[in-house]
Amino acid sequence: MALPATRLDRLTGPITEAGRCLQFLFRMLAGIRLSGPQILTVLQQTYLIGARSLVIIMICGFFVGMVLSLQAINALEQFGASDQVSLLVGKSLFRELGPVLTALLFAGRAGTSVTAEIGLMKATNQLEAMELMAIDPVQRIALPRFAAGVISVPLLTAMFSAMAILGSVVFAIGVIGLDAGIFWSKLQTGVYFEKDFLGGIWKSVVFGGTISLIAVYFGYSARPTGAGVGTATTNTVVLSSVLILIFDFIMTSFLT
Amino acid sequence: MATRDGTSPNPDTPVVRIRDLVFRRGDRTILDGVNIDIPKGGIVAFMGPSGVGKTTILRLISGQLRPDSGTVEINGHLISSMSDRELHHFRRNIGVLLQDGALFTDLTVFENIATPVREHTDLPEALVRRLVMSKLNAVGLGGIEYRMPHELSGGMARRVAFARAVVLDPDIMLYDEPMTGLDPIAVSTIRTLMRETNDALGQTSVVVSHNVTQVRQFADYCYIIASGRIAGEGNPEELAASIEPRVDQFMNGKVEGPIPFHYEPPGAPWGLLD
Question: What residues of chain A lie within 8 A of the CB of B164, using their CB?
Fold first, then answer.
């Protein structure tokens, strides 16, 4: 029995959209020139979407570290193992919470602003004006923002994890009164740079690429109206968040 | 057809040549068998009621749209069958002023005008600066180079957009409703700039407008589009005196006439007034 056209569209629509998104990615990658002006634009965008996300990432990281220590100490105390708190916090942070939470925060803070900015440029004919000036908006507008996202997320992840460790130190050592020497030695001996820290950084590179691609693609393909830009912005957060969690599971399966 | 400075462009070598152009959107035929020749050096205006396909013609000339059938040629190059890469290269000789100016909102006035220069030339920064400032001074806005677009009035923004469009001295200028929404002084300024730039650089200008009064003041030749076809053509004085019913209705702003006031979608089974 043949499916009605509308149902078929619902099934094939996401696949078609994913294909277009990948086509858009290849179009961006084909525009990499590594020229001075292009590098300068990427650096500017890294500052705008990366450095400006730093404060929110640091605050969230600090409190995640504190709450993680609080929960870990409560649980470990039952087995008389509360001195293992830094090991638990370190492992869970570097491998999972750091990359995932940073990516989710980045999608909400920077991904939405990139989609809204590009969508608004489309709605006010700025992208059309660029095309008419023989300037490719994909290279000029989308590529620097995409590259900035890929660069920013791993750096922000490292900063998030550092602040979370600091939060853990403040709570576990400062508030609960755990021995500082034991805290640091467990962290140093139990958490591995390559397996735990770099594993998380690799994840964050993929997350950064995913969020940035979705953000620039949805902005570029948004309907040029207020409602269209609003929908595209919402879709960026929703799809980015879902894909981050799916990719996290897939990568964790292969990395461990 | 003669330009306002008295020179007669050679009609045998039109800069823009459109033949048997058909363009459809879905079931609706926007342009149906249109033929147009635009000779070098003049300002040619396309007029007609809103939604009749004036801007569509501009987009077909700039290659943003492709015709369903027929051809669009610029200087002998077939725009309608160019690849995206060829079109991208070709557009360097075309300047476009869009209806709302479309300035890049994240760049200063200076950076807006410098963008096409930096993109398409290897001029040293000192020369880029001199070129940008000369264009800004030409539009009477020297001294505002560090302002952001949101700090400009509508008229100023349109003049900055004009400076950006002509900064590389293009052979062809396309204007989409260049004076809409401007006060009378800004309208006169833009009109003067269009005329002076066109004549000084030997450009060919194509203007889309629905304002009969304004077009009569600057255009050398006009086409009136109605019902997907050329309803009339000639210089503004000839068109004003035309007795062709559609031209007469449009030029004199009559409600009653062959150009319908009520829009009827294609395939509608019945109309409210039937």
Answer: 133
